[in-house]
Every structure is written in C-alpha cells, then in structure tokens.
Amino acid sequence: MASDLETKAKEAFIDDHFELALHLYSQAIQLNPKHAELYADRAQANIKLNNLTEAVADANKAIELDPSMSKAYLRKATACMKLEEYQTAKSALETGAALAPAESRFSKLIKECEERIAEETGDVSVPMPEALAKNDVPAKEIELDKDQPNLEIEAAPPKPAYRHEFYQKPEEVVVTIFAKGIPHDCVKVDYGEQTLSVAINAPGKEAYHFQPRLFAKIIPEKCRYDVLSTKVEIRLAKSVPIHWTSLEFSRDVAITQRVNVSSVSASQRPSYPSSKPQRVDWDKIEAQVKKEEKDEKLDGDAALNKFFRDIYKDADEDTRRAMQKSFVESNGTVLSTNWKEVGAKKVEGSPPDGMEMKKWEY
C-alpha cells in the first residue's frame, strides 16, 4: 500500500500537483515511517510549495534514517538557501558532495553559498529575509484526474498535542513546550540559522512537530535544550541582541538594524529597537535593583532578617518545613533548619537569657 502511494505521489509531483504529492507522501510515511526516501521526496514537495521549515525538518529526518543519502543533504541545503541560512546550507552541501563527488550541483551551490556568506560578513545590518518573498509563488491549482482518488487536500490544521510559549533575555530566547513525562530519547531538536525543528514521538502519544521560522537569526552551535519532567526547555542563542516582538518571523514586522555598539556612548545606547521615544529599559532597571539589593548594607535585626530570608529562599523543602515548624511552635524563639531534629517532636520555646516565656490567653 505504501509503495502504491509513493508511486502516485511521484506521478503527482511530475505533473506539478505538489499539494497532492505532499498529501500522498504523508500518507505513505504514516504507513512506513522508517523509509528515508519518503521524507527526502516530501521535502522536495515542501520546497515547491514554499514550506521551507517543513522541508528542512523532512530532510533532517531522512538524514537521520539514512546518513548516506546525498539527495537529502541537497534538499536541506536548497531549503536553507531559500531561508538565507547559507552557513547551514554550505555545511549540508559539503557533506553531500563527499557522498556524491560526481554531482556537479553541490560544487556550484557551495560557491553560491560562499558568495552570499561573504556579502553578509561585510553587512552591519541584520539581513532582511526577502528570499521567502521572492519565492512566494502560489502553487498551481490542482486538477485531479477522473481516475485519481477523491482526497481531501485542504483540512483544518489539527490542534497541537502540546502548548508552547517563549520569553527572552538580551542574549537568548527560551522556548518552553509543556509536555509531561516525555523520555529524553523521544525528543529531537534541530537548529538552523533562523529555523527551529522540534519532534516529540513518545510511545502511546500523538506525534508532535513544531517547525517555526524564527523572528531573527540564532547561533545554532550555542543553542541547547533540556527535557524536564513537565516540559522541554529550548534555549536559542540570539545572533544579534535585539528584542524579538514575536517568536516566529513575519514579513509584516521589520527587523531593526543592529547598532554598532563601539560608536555609541553609554548614554546614547538604546535598550531595544523601537519607534517609540524614551522607552523604559526594564532589563536595566531589574539588574540595577538586584545590584542594589546585593550591595545593601543592613544592621541589627534588618540584617538578621535578610539573612534568614536568603536562607529560606534558597533552601530545599525539608529545610523550609523545619524553619516554619520550629519558628511557629517556639513562638518565634527558635529557628532550626534540621527537619530530622524538629520533625518528630514539638519544638519548645527558648527565650533569651533574663527573659521568660509567657502564654497568652484569648
């Protein structure tokens, strides 16, 4: 059945019915998810439909299943070049060229990547991703033959299996995917220069794929992720320390040029690119408050209270329970951090020398 779908998908692709080809390849993959050739061919259909991040993800999957497949590297490079991710494209092309030295397309595309990289090296501004707009050509209207199966091409997108959100710091963006109890080996994350690909395939659970085109470029080798008990946390290193107004790229949002820091004085340096005058730099204010709290010199009871607050804030659960129980039961005269000592008995009050405990009657 999968081979029949693959044959029909190839025929649809040859006839420029790219959406039908994509649909058929997806059905074949459901039946045979370990077939690298299907992912490589679906990547090509995605490229034709300008689904570039999906094309990169498919090519990566094909490479994972069959690292010797040269055309998978070519498909990945083609999609990355359209996304203006020339370093990633060049790396894929060099690997593909080593696997297929007789294929001339690799050397030609490597040269083109090197030229594009050279252009970017001398550019002080953040490249505007116009390549996507140039290649944004609508696919031809599909005309199904009478003998073709009556397939539903346009379906409502399914609801994602997991929720995600993001926040950012000056140097990085942190993406959180709320997925509980996922084994580490069921999570795969790939980074491009401006793409992120996340795949979660846990036994007994619906497969999850998240493949956004990012707001701005990142540094793939500095990115990392952690699989925790309740979530997957992905840290993206920003290529340029600008404020991301969203996680995903949009042609409607302009990316502000990078500021040449060395030529701008500290008093003139902007906090974040913005068209609004006198925008408050909240990150700077937060850092200043933390510094003042750290450097604050306290005396007497204030210093002691701050000391105990710091202990409680950084303590584990048992230490906190010990502090709470001892303080309450002793009417504020004992503060212990040893739960083994105070957990099994009532903590008696211990007044200072020269004073005595008094029980209040209500």
Compute the number of structural domains. 3
Level-1 CATH class name of the largest domain? Mainly Alpha
What is the strand arrangement across the widest sheet? 1-2-7-6
What's the total helix number?
A: 12
Task: Summarize the amount of helix as a percent range.
Answer: 40-55%
CATH superfamily of the largest domain: Tetratricopeptide repeat domain
Could you tell me the strand content as a percent range? Answer: 5-15%
What does this structure look like?
The protein has 362 residues and is α+β, with helices and mostly antiparallel strands. It has 3 domains: 116 residues, Serine Threonine Protein Phosphatase 5, Tetratricopeptide repeat (Alpha Horseshoe), CATH 1.25.40; 75 residues, Sandwich (Immunoglobulin-like), CATH 2.60.40; 64 residues, no CATH class. Helix content is 41%, strand content 10%. The protein is built from 12 helices and 7 strands. The strands form 2 sheets. The protein has a 4-stranded antiparallel β-sheet with strand order 1-2-7-6, with no helix packed on it. About 14% of the residues have low confidence.
Describe the SSE topology.
Blueprint: H1 2-14, H2 18-31, H3 36-48, H4 52-65, H5 70-82, H6 86-99, H7 104-121, H8 131-134, E1 163-168, E2 172-178, E3 187-191, E4 196-200, E5 208-210, E6 224-227, E7 232-237, H9 282-295, H10 300-314, H11 317-329, H12 339-342
Antiparallel strand pairs: 1-2, 2-7, 3-4, 4-5, 6-7
Protein name: Protein SGT1 homolog
InterPro entries: CS_dom (IPR007052), HSP20-like_chaperone (IPR008978), SGS_dom (IPR007699), Sgt1-like (IPR044563), TPR-like_helical_dom_sf (IPR011990), TPR_rpt (IPR019734)
Organism: Gossypium klotzschianum
